[in-house]
Amino acid sequence: MTYDYDLFVIGAGSGGTRAARVSAAYGARVAVAEEYRVGGTCVIRGCVPKKLLIYGAHFAEDLKDAKRFGWNVPEQPDFSWSVLRDNVMEEVDRINGAYTNTLNSNGVDIILSRAVVTGPNEVTLSDGRKVTAERILIAVGAHPAIPDCPGAEHGITSNEVFHLDTIPKRILIAGAGYIANEFAGIFHQFGAHVILINRTDVILRGYDESIRDRLLQISMTKGLEFRFNAGFEGIDKGEDGCLTVRMKGHEPAVVDMVMFATGRIPNTTGLGLDSAGVELDANGAVIVNEDNQSTCPSIYAVGDVTNRVQLTPVAIREGQAFADNTYGGKSVRVDYDNIPAAVFSHPPMAGVGMTEAQARQTLGSVKVYTSDFRPMKNVLAGRNERALYKMICDGDTDRIVGLHMIGPDVPEILQAAAIAVKARLTKADFDATIALHPTMAEELVLMR
Predict the structure, then answer these.
(1) HSE of 240 in the Cβ direction (CA atoms, 13 Å)?
(2) Whether residue 283 sits in one domain with residue 134
(3) What is residue 76's predicted lDDT score, i.e. its pLDDT?
(4) d(Cα 337, Cα 243) in Å, to the nearest integer?
(5) Sheet containing 341-343: order of strands
(6) Which of 58, 177, 300, 409 is the most buried (most CB within 10 A)?
(7) Which residues are designated catalytic?
(8) In 282-313, which positions are buried (b, 16+ CB within 10 angstroms) versus exposed (e)?
(9) Looking at the domain assignment, is residue 212 inside a domain?
């Protein structure tokens, strides 16, 4: 059978763009459909603009600290949210253009339309046009979950937060994962009173307990308010525009804005996957095998829509692997062990490998090394905030099985250290490395 394309990609985010570009470079005839903007969640409404807001927010502390370093800074520096917001959106536009140019330069046809699967080898565009392809790749990502409760329409998600007219004076954030804690730090630094509510008593589930406890301690010291075991019941909007949030186990909270950060749901609703026999899990994610192939042999999926690991670099690796295997004549599979992760909170966290609890449960014999110190910059600034680095080793082999950190710039430090964990290096290898002084990173080779 003759098809319109060798590959039709639905979704031009990080995973879909990589798969489309590399497949086309291998000689495949490729089209990609995108109903919003090329770039996907990370570039348009996720990690890129969020990281830029985090940079902007951190100046609040940096300007205070600057006085101790001899800089004459006004007591109340003037901050313009609109300037930061508009500059961030300008950068988003630039990257959107770069992604588009990359696809065009590789000969990929970009179709700015919603595409729905209507058969194993067919998609239908929003204008009714049908397109056929030998293979279809689903890379539509995920969207923020919104609780099913009265008044939920009064809240916002991370999708809308980048376009606010003003910074609220009081904001309640529902959730305790990385998105909730990152935006809590952002809003707090911009002068808002922040309340985080969570239905359990644990923040950042899955991260090392010592590190997440340190973040909770620092956040509370800074003035962030946490309400645990708080079941979300609803939101009432008053005549003055204020929002009253009702929750189980706590008094209602009156705020100016509510933000939902309670997880993300794969974008498979209405995508027509059932027409091709593509099976979904209980959360709506596409079920795939190790080669990203769904239960329909001609349909594949990568990225957040599979709900395996919802991280941009993972989606990119999956898209690359798909292209290499399908059109590059290679045999590649993504290794999901020891994926580094970071939380760009204030201060940031980063970790790779097993937590202490996971190591004790898996290995039995475990050695744990820590460095709990006050960074040099914080000392001169008069800031009591302490960093904590934690190294977890197999007690029998001395192999490092986990590294977990909280403190200034730890995501930048961990990227290199994660290579050591992936390479199965030992504590002795770190001990044999001469320290780079004076740095915070040197603590990694000085633990005893």
Answers:
(1) 6
(2) yes
(3) 87
(4) 43
(5) 341-343, 349-353, 400-406, 387-394, 366-373
(6) 300
(7) 437
(8) eebbbebeeebbbebebbbbbbbbbbbbbbbe
(9) yes
CA distances, 7 to each of 4, 291, 402 (Å): 9, 16, 39
CATH number of 429's domain = 3.30.390.30
Residue 177 confidence (pLDDT) = 95
pLDDT at 75: 87
CA distance 404 to 145: 28
In this prediction, the residues of the chain whose per-residue pLDDT falls under 50 are: none
Rounded Cα distance between 52 and 26, Å, is 35
The boundaries of the domain holding residue 415 are 347-445
Number of domain units in the chain: 3
Is-contact 259 235, C-beta < 8 A?
A: no
Quick one: tokens of 230? 């708080």
CA 394 to chain centre: 29
Under 8 Å between Cβ of 32 and 115: no
- 197 vs 146: CA distance, rounded Å: 14
What pLDDT sits at residue 178? 96
What's the pLDDT tens digit per position in 153-195? 999 999 999 999 999 999 999 999 999 999 999 999 999 999 9
Q: Is residue 361 part of a domain?
A: yes
Angle between helices 178-189 and 209-222 (to 10 degrees): 30
Half-sphere exposure of 366 (CA within 13 A, CB side): 18
Q: How much is the pTM? A: 0.95
Buried b (16+ CB within 10 A) or exposed e, 126-142: eeeeebbbbbbbbbbbb
Contact in structure between 37 and 89 (CB atoms under 8 Å): no
- What are the pLDDT digits (tens) for 49-100? 999 999 999 999 999 999 999 999 998 899 999 999 999 999 999 999 999 9
Residues 257 and 160 grouped into a single domain: yes
